[in-house]
Write a structure and sequence with these properties.
Blueprint lengths: L9 E5 L4 H11 L5 E5 L7 H10 L13 H7 L7 H10 L8 E4 L2 E4 L5 H5 L1
Parallel strand pairs: 1-2
Antiparallel strand pairs: 1-3, 3-4
Length: 122
């Protein structure tokens, strides 16, 4: 396991250009637990890390991408018929297409589309 979390720390994977990710980080900071924040604007995750994250959530890598987002549609012409490897490559080189921030604490790994979800997570 690449991401080893305990119940006494929170890991947040987000893109700092996205408003929800910054709000989730702010909520997490009020909990008083150590936070490992991974800003995808400045840090690239490896293929193994993306595979582990999606697997821990019971998802495929393509499920981490919001294919209905207008920016995705414009940037990639709405193409969604890709191989698993293609989705992985796309996410690695375009982390801004992540559907929502990912929050981990212990064994819990979830995507949070709403910053208020953080209140129920910790």
């Amino acid at each position: 396991m690449i991401f080893q979390n305990t119940d006494k720390e929170i890991t947040i994977i987000y893109h700092s250009d996205e408003h929800v990710g910054k709000q989730i980080l702010a909520y997490a900071q009020t909990e008083g637990l150590p936070i490992r924040d991974i800003d995808l604007k400045h840090t690239k995750l490896t293929p193994s890390q993306w595979i582990e994250i999606s697997g821990r959530m019971g998802l495929k890598v393509k499920d981490l991408v919001n294919v209905e987002d207008p920016d995705f549609i414009q940037k990639f012409n709405g193409v969604t018929d890709l191989s698993d490897q293609d989705w992985l490559t796309l996410l690695i080189h375009n982390p801004d297409i992540l559907s929502a921030p990912i929050v981990m604490k212990g064994e819990k790994v979830v995507m949070m589309h709403n910053s208020q979800d953080m209140l129920h997570f910790v």
